[in-house]
């Protein structure tokens, strides 16, 4: 199971729940969202349709026309999944939100394939957990080292920039001091200004008269800095962490792996239950 795309469903929405598991928890959420759909229908609003994409990476809720991802629920965050055994229509799952850490219950009207979707999510969860056990543990130390190196490189680049700025400020102060220190009305021979290390600043264009020659031959031309590749303090090309997939190795990789392990250990509970409890449910 790499990816399993399912036809369009009506998406009743999502609502916050207090617990990550439980039949009563999802039953209350389904009743709440069914009632909200009933109100919207009475006002002439249609229930939006969505597509589901289930894989070992998660459950994606897509817009059926634009294919834009509306929700991306990672499998290790899904803790409970249930379908309606009475009419084979309603199915729901509880997922922990990645930003707020709240438990949200997502409810769908699938018409006739609720049980199939529940089983598919269960299979994807099992495969994802197996993949995590096979590869996640082995790569922990390597990923931590890469993340640490990337963080250190960024710190060095920041320090390098600060040092360059300080050197530039000192050079500017030195030039101002030299200008104000010259006697008024006196003319001094022009000479190249030096930096704080008594070095003549590099100039891409130098007069021929100031450049000595040997055996009547001109030295090779100095390339313009505008055509050079920008290099850091050590002469190396700047390191771009984003070009090598820094997003795959976030600095908090250990906490991310711990979170995944905790989610998989909690497990995914699949359950068939009855959501139609009164006449209002059947009319919704």
From TrEMBL:
Main subcellular localization, coarse class?
cytoplasm
Q: Where are the annotated coiled coils located?
A: 139-180
Q: Which InterPro entries match?
A: Adapter_Engulfment-Domain, PH-like_dom_sf, PTB/PI_dom
The protein's location, in the record's own words, is:
Cytoplasm
* Annotated keywords: Coiled coil, Cytoplasm, Phagocytosis
Among CDD domains, the record links this protein to:
PTB_CED-6
Q: Which PROSITE patterns match?
A: PID
Polar residues bias locations: 205-217
One GO BP annotation is: phagocytosis
What GO cellular component term, any one, is given? Answer: cytoplasm
Q: Which residues form the PID domain?
A: 10-135
Lineage: superkingdom = Eukaryota
Q: Where is this region: Disordered?
A: 199-227
Q: Record's family?
A: Belongs to the ced-6 family.
The identity of this protein, by name, is: PTB domain-containing engulfment adapter protein 1
This protein's gene is called Gulp1
């Amino acid at each position: 199971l790499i990816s399993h795309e399912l036809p369009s469903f009506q998406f009743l929405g999502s609502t916050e729940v207090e617990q990550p598991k439980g039949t009563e928890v999802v039953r209350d959420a389904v009743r709440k969202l069914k009632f909200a759909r009933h109100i919207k229908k009475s006002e002439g609003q249609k229930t939006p349709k969505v597509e589901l994409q289930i894989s070992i990476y998660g459950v994606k809720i897509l817009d059926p026309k634009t294919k834009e991802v509306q929700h991306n629920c990672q499998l290790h965050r899904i803790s409970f999944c249930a379908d309606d055994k009475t009419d084979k229509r309603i199915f729901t799952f509880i997922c922990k939100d990645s930003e707020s850490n709240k438990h949200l219950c997502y409810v769908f009207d699938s018409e006739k394939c609720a049980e199939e979707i529940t089983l598919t999510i269960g299979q994807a969860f099992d495969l994802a957990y197996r993949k995590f056990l096979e590869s996640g543990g082995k790569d922990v130390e390597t990923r931590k080292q890469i993340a640490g190196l990337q963080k250190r490189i960024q710190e060095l680049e920041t320090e390098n920039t600060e040092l360059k700025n300080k050197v530039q400020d000192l050079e500017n102060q030195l030039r101002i001091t030299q200008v104000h220190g010259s006697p008024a009305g006196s003319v001094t021979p022009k000479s190249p200004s030096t930096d704080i290390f008594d070095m003549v600043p590099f100039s891409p264009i130098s007069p021929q008269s100031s450049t000595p020659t040997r055996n009547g031959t001109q030295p090779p031309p100095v390339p313009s800095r505008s055509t050079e590749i920008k290099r850091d303090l050590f002469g190396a090309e700047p390191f771009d962490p984003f070009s090598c997939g820094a997003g795959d190795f976030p600095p908090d990789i250990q906490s991310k792996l711990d979170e995944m392990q905790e989610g998989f250990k909690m497990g995914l509970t699949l359950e068939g239950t009855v959501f139609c409890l009164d006449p209002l449910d059947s009319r919704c």
